Every structure is written in C-alpha cells, then in structure tokens.
Amino acid sequence: TISVTMEDMITFGHAVARACHNTMVVIDMPFMSYQVSVEQAVMNAGRLMKEGRANAVKLEGGAAVCPQIKAITDAGIPVMAHLGLTRVQGKTEAGAQKLIEDALAIQEAGAFAVVLECIPAKLADMITKKLDIPTIGIGAGAGCDGQILVYQDMLGLFSEYTPKFVKHFAELGGAMKEAFQAYDREVKAGSYPAPEHTFKIDDDVLEKLY
Questions:
Q1: Which single residue of 87, 131, 166, 206 could bond 153 by disulfide (Cβ 3.0 to 4.6 Å)?
Q2: How far apart are CA 18 and CA 39, in angstroms?
Q3: Catalytic pick from 93, 117, 160, 171?
Q4: In degrees rounded to 5, what are phi and psi of residue 115?
Q5: pLDDT in tens, 174-188
Q6: Residue 143 and residue 59: Cα distance in Å, rounded?
Q7: What is the pLDDT of residues 93-106, one digit of tens each?
Q8: Within 10 Å of residue 91's Cβ, how many Cβ atoms?
C-alpha cells in the first residue's frame, strides 16, 4: 500500500515479532523505501531488522531491483523477493519470458525465496521447477512450494471485493457485524452490562461511604 511508511512497518513488524517465538517474520519494505538507491535499500532493510526485529525483508520487483537484493544480502540480511504484484501477469509469451528471467535474476542476486502473485498456474509451476529457491504462491496455483492467503480474506471479513484466487474458509465477517450490532443495541437499551457482568460491593460498605 503506497501510503505505508517505514515507521508503520517498524511498529507493526515489531509487534508481530514480539509474539513470534518459532516463526519466521518477514517484513515488507514499503513503497519508495528501496527504489531510490542501493544505499537507501540497505539502510532501510537494516532498520527493519534492528528496529522491527525482522528475520528477513521482502521487496517487490524483478531484475530492476536485483542490485538492491544483492547489496542487502551482502550486508547479511535475508531477502524474499516478490513478482507478479497486483494484476495477472505472464499471459503473453513476452510477459511469461520476462517473469522467468526476473525470477532467475532474483535467485542469482541472492534472494532466498520469491512470492509469485497473480501469475498463471502453469507458468508459476514452470518457474518453480526452474528455480532452486522456494516459491510462495498467492493466486499462482498449487504448483508453488508454499502458499499465502491473507487471513482477512480467508475468514471472509471483507465482502465488497473478493479476488479470484481467494477461498473463504469461514464466513466470519457477517457474524462479526451481527455481534457488533447486538452489542450496540444492548448498550443503548441498558441491558448490557447486566448484573452478572458487574462486580459487587457490600451494602454496609456503601452506607459508610454516605
């Protein structure tokens, strides 16, 4: 998301990292936090590791960001790459070839894994077989080495827009909305909190206070 800042990612990433004891935490590098220069990329990746307590950083782009990937990994920071982005790519021969070349370049630059997003399943499967590093798919078919699904999408928390690759494993959005509305009604009606939701004090104590 374009408006997200380094400070945002450090704050949120740090919060996640504090709660994770045996899980790898990968923090995304925000828009324009690595595109300006290699030096900027290394500095901001270092901030995410030190201040955000990331185990690795992730950045978007292909061959164009390979200098940044190499410099960051040379500095001892693991990098996960990200290809495909927000629209389906690789449907034409030229587009598919570009994605393959980008994936190979990313691997050569030192990335330890690559996310493939919104890429035709057969192409993602081909890229996975060509690479030695793991591929993580989101809207890229079952041929990838691993899968990502945003939990808000997984649980059906959003109803306005559902990407083609999303499966709702539960429909919690409606249930949450009903719960919020019920809470609102009961508070306004004065039925919540009820006596069973409150703490008691002896009447003789109250009398002394008066």
A1: 166
A2: 28
A3: 117
A4: -85, 130
A5: 999 999 999 999 999
A6: 22
A7: 999 999 999 999 99
A8: 11
Euclidean distance between CA atoms 184 and 48, whole angstroms: 40
In angstroms, rounded to a whole number, what is the distance separating the alpha carbons of residues 124 and 199?
59
Task: Map the chain to HEC letters.
Answer: CCCCCHHHHHHHHHHHHHHCCCCCCEEECCCCCCCCCHHHHHHHHHHHHHCCCCCEEEEECCHHHHHHHHHHHHCCCCEEEEECCCCCCCCCHHHHHHHHHHHHHHHHHCCCEEEEECCCHHHHHHHHHHCCCCEEEECCCCCCCEECCCHHHHCCCCCCCCCCCCCCCCCHHHHHHHHHHHHHHHHHHCCCCCHHHCCCCCHHHHHHHC
Catalytic-residue membership of 51: no
**Spatial separation of the C-alpha atoms in residues 152 and 173, rounded to whole Å:** 9
- Could you report how far apart the first and last alpha carbons of the chain are, in Å? 58
